[in-house]
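Bench log. Compound arrived from synthesis this morning; before running ITC I wanted a structural hypothesis for how pterin-6-yl-methyl-monophosphate sits in the protein. Inputs:
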Amino acid sequence: MTLVMGIVNVTPDSFSDGGRYVDGEAAIDHGLALLAAGADILDIGGESTRPGAERVDPAEERARVIPVIEALSGTGAMLSVDTMNAETAVAAVAAGARMVNDVSGGLADPEMLGAVAASGADIVLQHWRGHSADMYADASYTDVGREVLHELKARLHAAAKAGISPDRVVLDPGIGFGKHGDQNWRALRALDRIVALGPRVLVGTSRKRFLAETLEAAGAPGAVDETRRDLATAVTSVLAARAGAWAVRVHDVTATRDALAVAQAWEQGGI
Ligand code: PMM
């Protein structure tokens, strides 16, 4: 079954958890709660990538995430660090992370691919066209699916050249990163072609703006609150699983686990 990656943001702001998990103790508790809810992987990040967000000083980023990784590594859970900084990635692996989730696919820090190669960790290479402060500057495509596919293939080759074999790579279409509204849906239509490249594939749609826009356009009237975004995320998780995704990255682990279990029963004709 598709794995569920629970999100632990150790930041004062993010796409959606604004201010709730700023302190380390709360982040550790949140990580434990996600594991209790059935998360297979925890993704721990100290830098917001919300559109418009400014960069965080790498030393501050490490001060946020390392104690949380150290504390959660005692659980034996698979931990991933959400960072674009090579030094943070190396420190996180030393603290117990087994995977580096780089939303820039190794583009933001020229040291990243070499550092991960040497660390022995796996790496998530996400489709990315620029930092959050100016995320939409390059959001123009003639064929989103083809371009995402092509650019991910280029990152896969760069990783191989740095000494990271494809079995250590996870590809991610980068939903919400340099993509407006429907561009996200078109990138998701390319998921089976991304899966066909060979490496594992991760999909992150959780609570993202394009889901709210879709519900506003087509769903029931009224405010699109967190509950409705989580329900929409559970649906995209099932569809990502059906397209062959190895894992989905979500805030609400319970909703997605439930949706995946129901879809599996449907496909198998029983539980
Ligand atoms: N999305 C966010 C942060 N990190 N990492 C991967 N691999 N894929 C994503 O889609 C992704 C990510 C932004 O979401 P958040 O601020 O709500 O965590």
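What the model suggests: Residues 7, 9, 14-16, 49-50, 82, 101, 103, 124, 126, 172, 175, 202, 204, 249 surround pterin-6-yl-methyl-monophosphate (CB under 6 Å). The first strand starts at residue 3 and ends at 9.
ITC booked for Thursday regardless.
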